[in-house]
Specification:
This protein is α+β, with helices and mostly antiparallel strands. It is built from 10 helices and 11 strands. It is globular.
């Protein structure tokens, strides 16, 4: 799997966030969301799923998904991210399957799922062991409500899915909006609207995000030269790489490597 738009470095993370547009992305974490206030639209594959207060959804690992906000009301939600290895006996299902409909309405949500989120919101010192317990409780209860399908059945004919899949496979190459549109068999103006309307960014900015995430992972985990890294990530020049890297991470590639969580 190529690097994703969103990096998940922690094995377990629980956070409360205001609802907002989140561009299409994927990661290898399990993602749970519980809406506290307002409305939220969760997009997976070709479908957009509506969520309201008290509704819950699970996004299985390596599924392209995004969030949209159509209501003018301020929204809020709890998000839980857990590494697949914390899922225990559910790991095989997470790797191969996913829900046909990821949303469980408030009326059908098991009280143990709701209680798990409430407990997590009060506990400021959750370690991996505790996180594993909560993850498996939530999975046990939500999987009972889901009809599971093969992941390959999700998003196979969706332009958003096809666009991301193509970019993750070809980001190291020289790409333009026009060349990607041609490869996908669509008009470049149609593709441009996908980036502005769903990704909430433009083509070049989104492509740079993918490349920067890949470069950052190489800086953290290898001793390869910065020249090798920016070329492999698809950047045309070190000047462009340094400028975009500094803009995102607020430090140069060399400084980032020195401050890496896993220094060489």
């Amino acid at each position: 799997m190529h690097p994703s738009y969103e990096e998940q470095k922690e094995r377990f993370c629980f956070v409360q966030k205001a609802s907002h547009h989140v561009p299409p992305h994927l990661h290898n974490a399990i993602e749970f969301v519980y809406v506290l206030r307002g409305e939220l639209e969760l997009g997976i594959g070709c479908e957009l799923y509506h969520m309201e207060k008290g509704d819950f959804a699970a996004v299985f690992p390596d599924l392209i998904h995004h969030y949209q906000i159509f209501s003018g009301k301020e929204g809020m939600a709890w998000y839980l991210y857990a590494a697949p290895e914390l899922s225990g006996s559910f790991l095989e299902k997470l790797q191969k399957k996913c829900p046909e409909d990821p949303v469980i309405p408030r009326a059908n949500l098991h009280y143990e799922i709701r209680n798990a989120f409430i407990c997590l919101s009060k506990d400021k010192n959750v370690n991996d062991i505790t996180g594993q317990a909560y993850t498996q409780i939530i999975l046990y209860r939500c999987i009972q409500e889901y009809r599971l399908t093969e992941k390959e059945n999700i998003g196979s004919h969706d332009l958003i899915y096809d666009t991301m899949s193509y970019l993750f496979s070809h980001f190291q190459e020289e790409l333009t909006l026009g060349s990607v549109a041609e490869a996908l068999g669509v008009n470049k103006y149609t593709l441009s609207k996908v980036f502005s309307g769903t990704f909430h960014t433009n083509f070049n900015q989104y492509l740079n995000e993918i490349r920067l995430n890949y470069a950052a992972s190489l800086l953290e985990s290898t001793d390869r030269t910065i020249t090798d890294i920016y070329l492999e990530a698809g950047f045309e020049s070190q000047r462009t790489f340094n400028r975009t890297f500094l803009h995102k991470y607020n430090r140069t590639p060399s400084e980032y490597r020195k401050m890496s969580v896993y220094p060489l």
